[in-house]
Sequence to fold (282 residues):
Amino acid sequence: MSTFPDASGAGSVDDPNLDFAGTTPYEDYVRADVLTHLQHPRSDDPGEMVFLVTTQVMELWFTVIVHEWETAGRALREDRVPVAMDALKRSVRELEALNHSWRPLAHLTPAQFNSYRGALGEGSGFQSAMYRRMEFLLGEKSASMLVPHRGAPRVHAELEKALQEPSLYDEVLRLLARRGLPVPEAVLRRDPSLRYEPSPEVERVWAGIYADPDQNAELVRLGEALSDVAELVWRWRNDHLVATRRAMGSKTGTGGSAGVAWLEKRAQKNVFPELWTARSHV
Ligand code: HEM
Fold:
């Protein structure tokens, strides 16, 4: 049985330590004091706090997911498919957690959102650099998405690097080519800083892989992990779209876009397009 620590702070051997010379080892690792003092609401509305924290939580999940996809990309380049699969599967669970974090914002009324919308000024998730890195890793490259970050050298440099590097999907297609599958040279040698355009030959490659799952067990598993990622990114975009529609109808966005109409177009895009279209040919 543990006993309650005495006034000197020294408890029995079963109790956690209370005595640290400086900050706690937990604090040194987690930096909770920093993390929990980064919330500076700009209005008096009590609902703004959860809007701000949900956004920060999503930024943290974006950061973890970028880390996983970079790990997966590197592992694929080195032909370490199990390492890539582990990272992709972790990212699937993380995307599920990310998507669940819509709950507190999913049912805002226009009046509730209006209570602090003015305080956001021109701030918009559109300006999220970590979200852009996620999109770049998925193959959705766009040099113009660097423009908003010209004033932030570190962020800009990270985005520029991500723009120039092969995406996760580029690494997948290179792996398929190394496995002897007929991925066209033009796809393998494409300029990685440009948006990936779907290719009928790549669609045929995936259709062939899926048509013979016994022969291609590992690649089917890879294709399915990528499909899980694609589905969950699509779900994030659609949950965002519906939350936005509920909170502000068809008003223009704080970032200057047409709002819901603009988001609808973005949400229509398929991640890893051939993994979806190939299914019609299996
Ligand atoms: C209910 C609350 C929200 C509303 C009403 C809303 C509204 C919008 C609108 C209208 C846009 C289009 C750009 C613009 O003109 O601003 C946008 C973009 C975006 N928002 Fe939100 N948003 C909400 C919550 C969030 C949260 C919590 C995040 C998390 C980081 C987020 C991330 C993004 C991202 C990444 C984009 C760019 C999407 C793209 O480039 O395709 N939003 N949002």
Q: What stands out?
A: The mean pLDDT is 96.
